User: What shape does this take?
Amino acid sequence: MGNLRIGIAGLNRGRHFYEDFTKVDGADVIAVMDPNQEVLQAFCSKYKAVKALTDYQDLLDSDIDAVVIASPIQLHVEQAVAALERNIHVLSEVTAATKLYDCMILLEAARKSKAQYMMAENYCYIRENIAVRNMVKAGLFGELYYAEGEYLHNVVDLYSTAAGEPTWRLEEIASKRGAIYGTHSLGPIINWFDSRVISVNCLGSGSHTVPAYKNDDSTIMLCRTESGGLINIRLDTISNRPHNMGYYTLQGTKGCYEAPRVPGGEHRVWLKDYAASSEEWLPLANFYKAFLPKELIDFPEAAKTSHHWGADYFMVKDFVRCIREGRPVPIDIYRSLEFTLPGIMSQASIAHGGVPVTVPDVHKW
Ligand SMILES: NC(=O)c1ccc[n+]([C@@H]2O[C@H](COP(=O)([O-])OP(=O)(O)OC[C@H]3O[C@@H](n4cnc5c(N)ncnc54)[C@H](O)[C@@H]3O)[C@@H](O)[C@H]2O)c1
Assistant: This one.
């Protein structure tokens, strides 16, 4: 197969994708689209000329093999379905969908399509998360039974425009209760457990910082996995505090992992089979050589200049490689929905005082 011909929809987040696709082998971005002329012009003045469009259908008509959907969240399903119906591969930003019914529509379109669907959950490509995953697979943590993930990212500035107009984030996130944007925390943990979430309990702190928002300042979603594990997700996009978008901890019968509570700190593990004592924490980096592919150890310049600690670069590279080699993408339609559905179902739980709500099994749809 020749180079993948890529189209990108939505050019704020899409700019980052453009940069990463130009760094990897085997792909050419041939067309971009954004309905906002100012955004489009700003893009074209900065990056080398590609076909610049304002209409999504025109993008799909541009002889592309794959489309990157980096538009507002409520457009993801409609745009992904339109691409899949034309057998155009999809790399969709998070979350895959915002409604239960839309998950079913998306799954049906993906099943009927000859093209592949992947949700761009870049946090699964963070180096530390991949190292932990490989160490889990090798049995270093024993049997997993507990994990936490936190996404603490004050985006109050993004809930309205400079002119005070509401943005899609205000409509889809701040105006609803639940762990709506939880896939950055949950995705890597689901990969570690290699199990799906079967039920969620969701509670919130209430709205204190910006009382007009319906979304709680902090939302807690407790997830029960099919394997019997418990996952605690905290989502906070409102509180006044420094960001920490990538906190995780993991506990198994033979060891545990702790990401730094304050960014910049060291990622550490305690592992029964490796520690000299019950108190000896080891740097996670000690295990990179044995548990990471060379590329993630070397960490090329292309990754260093990529967003989200290099994860975006590795994700784009993996997507291109899988599609070109005709291999299944790692975050396929089922995994994408398994990452997304707990957050959707959490809205029903929090609306009823935190009662357990069943998360449907997408494989049975
Ligand atoms: N994975 C990550 O780390 C990460 C980070 C940031 C944003 N995101 C996701 O990326 C998406 C976009 O977020 P953002 O921060 O760029 O939002 P944004 O509001 O800053 O920008 C959205 C862009 O989409 C454009 N747009 C509007 N309607 C469109 C349409 N019909 N088709 C194509 N483009 C359209 C807008 O003009 C705007 O330029 C969201 O789904 C968000 O969840 C993911």
